[in-house]
């Protein structure tokens, strides 16, 4: 029975009961383990004695986690694991082994085991690993659902390119995807860095494991270590329960660190240590655990300049910069704008509207604009125009009404203006609408505050 229903990804008011199957040829020890799990952690546990029984039980009942002894009579633990994985690939299996069987346990992990535990078992550690395996399976299942629903459309947006500057990047991704080396993606905000990171993940051997993305700039400084490494219960004010960090949840998958240039220096030190050793330790904890994660980082900042200014560690930069590529801004791939608009019109939820396309005059206006917010701004603009469109075609009149481009001169009287002039006029107008508030202006333009400052500084220099 290939049923993953127990891996429910929806929100629940109460923590779900985790259903565990233990497999060990020691009936007394197995029963004690099951009883301990049920009493201490309210984990529902069943026990079987052979690999054959484990394969049958996993097919008959929706277990969330399996604890499998390696040394079993008849069918070995590894063989049983492989058969179970064929039927339920998302089901995490934890190997139980003795000290003299550790090399075999490591081999089992390469074949798909989640982790291994060494006899004699520490019940608290068993419970911790079970919870970690369960959360990991939830993320994998959710990740697969998101991949089938969203990633196909998003990847089409960046792959379908008529511009020659994108083709070499796609070719490079084909070459590096099978590696586990860190990747650094550079480019302005809104150029699709996370989509390209997703492409790398889904072309790699980790494609069926979690892809976890996090914006480093959005995490409060006082919580960033807990977010990445997890914390123990009571380790700080507000830590009412223990938590698994992103490195644990993304184990065997890919961790995407967006806006890595905004990470605070103390956290950069800890991140570097984990990248070099593969070791993590929870906030408030003493136990060191290992993680197998490929890291892809991205930033809109010039990290070399950040290193010179002592805002980014040089050693971390070189650790992340094994492979890098830079995504061009949309202003440098104008040929792709009609293709992207066509794609957005196909994929945006239009309700009952049937939007066939965009009028040529409106398209010309789109091509005249420099799109400082890049693909993100283009998509938001198309979505907004779809909602406001009164016919089956987006017209020039409707495009002009949009606040991001309504103050630009149309193509009929703009032959004497450069694209840079268009952009400068638009930025100045939005700045006026926001009454000089640069943070609001950057938000409305769909760019970072630093990008806005850079563009305003460029205008000032040109006027000198």
Defining traits:
464 residues, alpha/beta, Rossmann fold, 3 domains, 5-stranded parallel beta sheet, 13% strand
What's the layout of helices and strands?
Blueprint: E1 19-23, H1 27-41, E2 44-48, H2 51-60, E3 65-69, H3 77-87, E4 93-97, H4 102-110, E5 115-118, H5 123-159, H6 167-176, E6 183-186, H7 193-202, E7 211-215, H8 224-229, E8 230-231, E9 243-244, H9 246-249, E10 254-258, H10 265-277, E11 279-281, E12 288-290, E13 294-299, H11 303-308, H12 314-320, E14 323-326, H13 337-347, E15 357-358, H14 360-368, H15 374-388, E16 393-394, H16 396-401, H17 419-433, H18 438-445, H19 449-463
Parallel strand pairs: 1-2, 1-3, 3-4, 4-5, 6-13, 6-14, 7-10, 10-13, 15-16
Antiparallel strand pairs: 8-9, 11-12
Helix pairs in contact: 2-3, 5-7, 5-13, 13-15, 17-18, 18-19
Report Rg: 26 Å
Q: How much strand content do the residues show?
A: 5-15%
Q: Biggest sheet, in brief?
A: 5 strands, parallel
User: What is the architecture of the largest domain at the second tier of CATH?
Assistant: 3-Layer(aba) Sandwich
Low-pLDDT segments, ≥5 res: 1-13, 408-414
Oligomer classification: single chain
- What is the number of domains? 3
Structural class comes to: alpha/beta
Helical stretch count?
19
Shape: elongated
Q: What's the overall average pLDDT, rounded?
A: 84
Cα(first) to Cα(last) distance is: 74 Å
Number of strands: 16
Q: Quickly name the level 1 CATH class of the largest domain.
A: Alpha Beta
* Portion in helices: 40-55%
Question: CATH superfamily name of the largest domain?
Answer: P-loop containing nucleotide triphosphate hydrolases
- Placed side by side, the strands forming the largest sheet appear as 2-1-3-4-5
């Amino acid at each position: 029975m290939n049923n993953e229903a127990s891996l429910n990804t929806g929100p629940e008011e109460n923590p779900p009961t985790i259903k565990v199957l233990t497999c060990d040829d020691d009936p007394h020890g197995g029963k004690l383990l099951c009883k301990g799990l049920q009493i201490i952690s309210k984990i529902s546990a069943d026990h079987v004695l052979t690999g054959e029984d484990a394969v049958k039980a996993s097919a008959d009942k929706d277990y969330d986690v399996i604890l499998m002894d390696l040394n079993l009579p008849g069918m070995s633990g590894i063989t049983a694991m492989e058969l179970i994985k064929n039927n339920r690939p998302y089901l995490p299996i934890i190997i139980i082994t003795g000290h003299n069987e550790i090399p075999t346990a490591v081999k089992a992990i390469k074949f798909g085991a989640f982790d291994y535990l060494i006899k004699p078992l520490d019940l608290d550690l068993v419970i911790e690993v079970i919870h970690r395996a369960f959360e990991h399976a939830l993320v994998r299942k959710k990740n697969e659902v998101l991949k089938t629903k969203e990633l196909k459309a998003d990847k089409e947006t960046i792959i379908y390119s008529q511009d020659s500057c994108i083709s070499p990047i796609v070719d490079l991704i084909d070459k590096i995807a099978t590696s586990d080396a860190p990747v650094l993606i550079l480019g302005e905000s809104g150029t699709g860095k996370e989509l390209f990171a997703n492409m790398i993940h889904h072309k790699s051997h980790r494609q069926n494991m979690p892809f976890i993305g996090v914006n480093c700039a959005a995490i409060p400084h006082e919580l960033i270590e807990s977010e990445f490494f997890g914390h123990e219960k009571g380790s700080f004010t507000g830590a009412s329960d223990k938590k698994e960090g992103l490195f644990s949840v993304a184990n065997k998958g890919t961790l995407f660190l967006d806006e890595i240039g905004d990470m605070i220096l103390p956290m950069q030190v800890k991140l570097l240590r984990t990248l070099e050793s593969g070791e993590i330790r929870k906030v408030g904890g003493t136990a060191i655990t290992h993680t197998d994660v490929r890291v892809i980082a991205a930033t809109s900042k010039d990290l070399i300049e950040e290193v010179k200014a002592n805002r980014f560690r040089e050693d971390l930069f070189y650790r992340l910069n094994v492979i890098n590529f830079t995504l061009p801004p949309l202003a440098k791939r104008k040929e792709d704008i009609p293709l992207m608009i066509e794609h957005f019109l196909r994929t945006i939820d239009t309700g009952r509207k049937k939007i066939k396309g965009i009028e040529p005059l409106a398209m010309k206006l789109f091509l005249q604009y420099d799109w400082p917010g890049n693909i993100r701004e283009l998509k938001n603009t198309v979505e907004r125009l779809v909602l406001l469109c009164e016919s089956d075609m987006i017209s020039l009149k409707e495009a002009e009404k949009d606040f991001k481009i309504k103050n630009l001169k149309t193509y009929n009287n703009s032959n004497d203006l450069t694209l840079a002039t268009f952009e400068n006029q638009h930025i100045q107008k939005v700045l006026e609408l926001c009454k000089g508030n640069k943070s609001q202006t950057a938000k409305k333009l769909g760019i970072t505050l630093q990008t806005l400052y850079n563009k305003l500084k460029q205008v000032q220099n040109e006027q000198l």
